[in-house]
Amino acid sequence: MRSRTSVKPSDYPPLPFHGIRSIIFLSSLVVAIILAIFIYHLRADGFKLPYVYLVLLLSSVLSLITITTTALVNCTCRLSPKLSLFTNILPLIIWLVALGLLAYSMSGTILTACTTEYWATATGISVCRTYKALFAFTVLSTLGHLLAIVLDVVVRRRQTRLGAYDPMASTAALGEDPWDVKLAERRDSVAGRGGGGAHYDDVPTGAGAGAGAPGVRFQSGYQHPAERTGYDPAAYR
């Protein structure tokens, strides 16, 4: 017997849901890569890591983990708006803290033009552009989490307004056992054949058949004449 598993369709609209999550994932990945490069060079030169880098690294790694985990949950058993809201609030708080620290500690670098007038060498200009890219993707990831939370709230309100989903209600209302596997398989097999075969309606029984009895009526609507289908026992005596 072939086993089939189905997952209820997601309550989220596909385009906003996947679009926002893609923005969060890509921006967090870029931030993590830039931080990894900075940390590598700072450790190689013997400098101490700034605490703002550690907060940014924590927020980016946490976002990557939550996006990956919730994507797997959504593919296997449908993502709940409550779970998604919880997993978005915590990274958002850390991103807001990291964004504030980054803007405070690097305000001069962010507002300065990346030219030889301020940075002298090509290496300095490259570092300036990298800092600005880090700040830009930090802002983008923070906005992505804000949009994700707004989407979670909207979907949750819509879900509450429509009521709870009961997959057994329709089956139980018909007087059928919702856990009857054989009944469900028979229903699926009949539906898969497209309702083929002959279907009859109002077929008279042996006791009811006689002279003047109504003819057999088919589902297609064709009615046999009564004189052709009737039976008269006196005619054969």
UniProtKB/TrEMBL annotation:
<feature type="transmembrane region" description="Helical">
    <location>
        <begin position="20"/>
        <end position="40"/>
    </location>
</feature>
<feature type="transmembrane region" description="Helical">
    <location>
        <begin position="133"/>
        <end position="155"/>
    </location>
</feature>
<feature type="transmembrane region" description="Helical">
    <location>
        <begin position="85"/>
        <end position="113"/>
    </location>
</feature>
<protein>
    <recommendedName>
        <fullName>MARVEL domain-containing protein</fullName>
    </recommendedName>
</protein>
<feature type="transmembrane region" description="Helical">
    <location>
        <begin position="52"/>
        <end position="73"/>
    </location>
</feature>
<feature type="region of interest" description="Disordered">
    <location>
        <begin position="191"/>
        <end position="237"/>
    </location>
</feature>
<keyword id="KW-0812">Transmembrane</keyword>
<keyword id="KW-0472">Membrane</keyword>
<keyword id="KW-1133">Transmembrane helix</keyword>
